Amino acid sequence: MPLTLPDRLPAIDILKQENIFVMDNSRAHSQDIRPLRIAILNLMPLKITTETDLIRLLSNTPLQIEISFMKLKSHTSKNTPIEHMMQFYRDFDVMRQEKFDGLIITGAPVEQMEFEKVGYWNEITEVFAWARTHVTSTLYICWAAQAGLYYHYGVPKYPLAKKMFGIFSQRTLQSQLPIFRGFDDSFMMPHSRHTEIKSNDIIGRSDLQLIADSEESGVSIVMGRGGREFFITGHLEYAPNTLDNEYKRDAGIRTDVELPRNYYRDNNPANPPVVTWRAHANLFYNNWVNYYVYQETPYDISKIE
What we know:
By secondary structure, this protein is an alpha/beta fold. It contains 9 helices and 12 strands. Strands 1, 2, 3, 4, 5, 6, 7, 8, 9, 10, 11 and 12 form a 12-stranded mixed sheet that branches. The longest helix has 17 residues. The radius of gyration is 19 Å and the shape is globular.
């Protein structure tokens, strides 16, 4: 089944060129199906790119999914046209009375700031609290993972001596969990961050489970509330060229930029990236939608609590 997307969303044309089946709201309303409702709070600067990356992964499921894009009133995007935001995004205040089967909260380029000094901290913590009673399962990605762990569980973040930048091997620590169904013992994940979560702050707790980590990149995936919350420190959603674009952007303005590790063929930025994470990325999102959203959410969405 396809994803149901807002009419004229740019991602529709991009994904159709990749032979991914999506349809707009006009066509979806003609089908008598209760779609899964998934909201995306997109805090990344290049919103259209992130929309497309996430929709590409969510499309790899036999379930019909209706996507809604959320924004914060206390944050104005500087890198996305205001017309796009007005047409496709709704304020959290407008959406807070609704319930959703799933929620994805993206990373944001504010990780080197203290949480409380982020301009939209008060509002985003309202989203974090709201999600616990209005959403069946929530994915927190990169900075959102660190912020969610800090807000919900008091887990601190720590600065890194240098940026964690590249593609790193991860190991599954609880392979029996449905989120890892079909996974190999190890899988690759892109990372791009200046801070980290330490395993010592997770291991031994009864309310959190460290379910994947890496010898190189550290804590990878943490699960809370039996799968109603997943905190992912990397970026399984990244497209093949995302780290390449980031490296070439920063290399042009700074002198301390290192090559993304385990990324370019022959470690040469003149060569294309070697994509090693796409299969597990699709599997992860498919497992999340199936086992932690579809099989757990009530048919009557108003009964989510």
